[in-house]
Amino acid sequence: MLFILPLLEVREVFRLSDAFISPTETPSLELIVTVFNVAKGHNADLLLRCTPLSDYSVFISLINDGVDNGLALGAAIDSAIHYCIKNDIMRVYLQEKSAEVKRMLITEWDDDVYREVIREEAIEEEKIATARRMKEYGDPINKIADITGLPLEEIADL
User: Fold this and answer.
1) Quick check: helix, strand or coil at residue 24?
2) pLDDT in tens, 22-35
3) Is the pLDDT of residue 2 over 60?
4) What is the DSSP letter of 15?
């Protein structure tokens, strides 16, 4: 499903600090966001009060229905764009930005992949920090490479 949190029933509160690599009891900066599920069948009162949100919900629902009925993602997006323009749902926006919308929707966000990339970057940064400390202590480059797994050339450049 596109842009819909599968486990989110009605709404959920997210904290920026939950994404910190090193959690802390009292973060210096905290952002708290309430996320509302606007998928079909959720938060109908909110959707009645906000036409753009309701239109977006219909648009995403059409895409999901198309995929569920066997269309490839690109074809489902094209079909939903065509339907919405024809039925005056986000018409002006979709007429002007349909290529950008399609490109954005095809490039789905994968939170698990993002977290893995962040974790790998943190590990790499720690390896570099360790290599720098070992160099400062005068450890041989071969030993540093063996312990950190970093290439000799990278260690030499530190």
Assistant:
1) coil
2) 777 888 888 999 88
3) no
4) E
Cα Rg of the chain (Å, integer): 24
Residue with tokens 């071969």: 142
Please say whether the beta carbons of 101 and 74 come within 8 A. Answer: no
Residue carrying structure tokens 């997210």: 14
Residue 14 has pLDDT above 90, yes or no: no
Question: For the ranges 8-17, 33-42, 54-63, 127-136, which has the lowest average pLDDT?
Answer: 8-17
Average of per-residue pLDDT across 86-96: 93
Distances in Å between the Cα of 17 and the Cα atoms of 5, 25, 63, 126 are 19, 9, 33, 21
The residues facing 11 across adjacent strands are 36
Sign of CA dihedral 80, 82, 88, 90: positive
Question: Tokens at residue 10, please?
Answer: 């009605």
